[in-house]
Specification:
463 residues; four-stranded antiparallel sheet; 16% strand
Amino acid sequence: MANAGRFDGNFMAQNNDKPNIVLMVADDLGREAVGCYGNPVIKTPHLNWLAASGIRFINSFCTAPTCAASRSTILTGLHNHTNGTYGHTHGVHHFSCFPTVKTLPAILKEGGYRTGRVGKQHYAPDSLFPFDCGHPAGQFGRDDVRMSEACREFIRENEPFFLYWCSMNPHRAGTLETHPLRPDHFGNPTSDFLGDTEQTYAEDKVIVPPFLSDIPEVRAELAQYYQSISRLDRGVGRLMGILEEEGKLENTVIIFISDNGPAFPEAKTTMYDPGMRLPCIIQSPRHSNRGTTCDGLITWADITPTILEFAGLNYNPSAFFGRSFAGILDQASPADWRDEIYAAHTFHEVTNYYPMRVVRTKSHKFIWNIAWKLDYSFASDLWHSASWQAVLRNKQNQFGARSVDAYVHRQRFELYDLDKDPDEITNLAGDPGYQDLVNTFCDKIRKFQQDTRDPWFHKWTYE
């Protein structure tokens, strides 16, 4: 086996027993930096292999572009404003799920599954997430290969099991003081972890996506970001290698997603596509097509009901806002599926209040900036990043394709034609020719808020 643990499994075998389920969640990974989503520079061979042997969704979205709020939706099937996790759970931020919420590990445990977790936690309170076993959050730091190896005993035991595997890569981690531009080091070690070899990247070779500016500081940070992503990929490879070695791979559903977009301005914490349109790769012994894509609109509110369907557990679909997408895995363009998805962001840190509600179709996105008269609130790591500080230091009027003023000062409504304007730059909400569409989307958001018991619904009339 190579240092990351390569594998050569045949997944066509069928098993009538309940499948094992592994849910892997990356931390701040955008789809623009994954090989199977079109990046020719980044080295992600194991994610590429997973996509080649499974299904790659091309219209998959988080419902909240911030860590804890997104993870609360993943593990409950409820939007974060419904389950109570309005923002970060840790430290002084202190958000958490309401005590009446029934979580995915609790339901699976009642259904006969062994449940385990490893890596980043970022949910609260612990009592609502009764995993049978788990390692302390952060025990393995950024060493994803070692984190995967620590799962071997859990995987080896009796089936069926559910493993919640959460990397801390490629989240920001602190300033690389030895670099003249002082980029974030994204958790990259100063020397190789035992049994693993770091993959580094030249700053002049990285691909700067349209939402970022092609400046030295951005390139320096992207090089560090790429290195962290490759380490994540090797951890994914090691975990799949263990599943194969222990004879469990053929009866295991693997779901790989990210909690939100990359920790760069214009992405994480924003409702623009770089913040919420994310990778979703599924390999399942229960579907026939391999190496295909599905363009059905899905969100992380769908993860819990999808896993429950894979597990063969009876559940009340009305208990979740999401909907199982297990039935469309073999459909490239599912006809009888949804036409739109919804998303909601309110807090990042408790000091970062900027509530937004969104409806997105394949052709349009509509954003209601509820507190639009406020300046857009920056997450602390984004504000202090070398990429953003370069904008301030050089008094740049533009960042990526968007003006700095438009980024900081939002309009109440934003409407984008995604076919003509994929970078979401030209706001059509004030154009009289689009007023009917604006009104239609406003009505849809109101209904979404009512259906999900959104406390911010009253802002339509109160302010």
